[in-house]
Write a sequence for this structure.
């Protein structure tokens, strides 16, 4: 039996114990998944204090709603869905953040009807330079923070976490075509921000 199968079996055992009211099982689930949930929350919110709030909310939800987990999906998928939803709520409630309409970044046309195109800069060869890499990370972080929370989650889940489009659709309760369309649109937006 591989480590992944052993981990799933351990999860099932802990979940069963937690459903039975065993607080030690909750403590073990918390220890086992804290770093993963915190990392996801930090990538989605971009702020340490917000990520800490999200972690607290996620594990409180796990404790309160573990009996609703039926095991039809993996526990990690359910936990990730809780994390994304808690992040989305946190970001929606955070009135200080300014959201930018992505429609502002759709193709634009010149007066003569020709498409206005921003030339793409070739910065890939400069990424080895630490100062350029830091600058690029800052630009990317700012651009990600301008995305609507659900769209930011889609980009991060796809491009950073490696989730398949179908998994993202399931976790966020969207159609597959909606996920693909949002990915295309958000990637265009991010690209325009990075090459401007």
């Amino acid at each position: 039996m591989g480590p992944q199968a052993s981990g799933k079996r351990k999860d099932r055992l802990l979940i069963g114990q937690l459903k039975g009211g065993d607080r030690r099982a909750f403590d073990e689930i918390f220890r086992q998944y804290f770093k993963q949930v915190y990392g996801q929350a930090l990538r989605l919110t971009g702020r340490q204090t917000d990520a800490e709030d999200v972690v607290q909310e996620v594990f409180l939800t796990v404790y309160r709603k573990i009996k609703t987990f039926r095991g039809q999906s993996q526990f990690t998928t359910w936990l990730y869905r809780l994390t994304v939803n808690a992040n989305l709520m946190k970001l929606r409630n955070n009135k200080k953040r300014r959201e930018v309409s992505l429609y502002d970044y759709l193709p634009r046309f010149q007066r003569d009807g020709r498409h206005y195109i921003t030339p793409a800069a070739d910065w890939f060869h400069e990424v080895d330079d630490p100062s350029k890499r830091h600058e690029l990370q800052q630009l990317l972080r700012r651009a990600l923070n301008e995305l609507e929370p659900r769209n930011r989650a889609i980009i991060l889940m796809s491009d950073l976490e490696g989730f398949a489009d179908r998994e993202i659709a399931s976790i966020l309760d969207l159609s597959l075509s909606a996920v693909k369309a949002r990915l295309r649109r958000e990637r265009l937006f991010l690209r325009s921000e990075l090459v401007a």
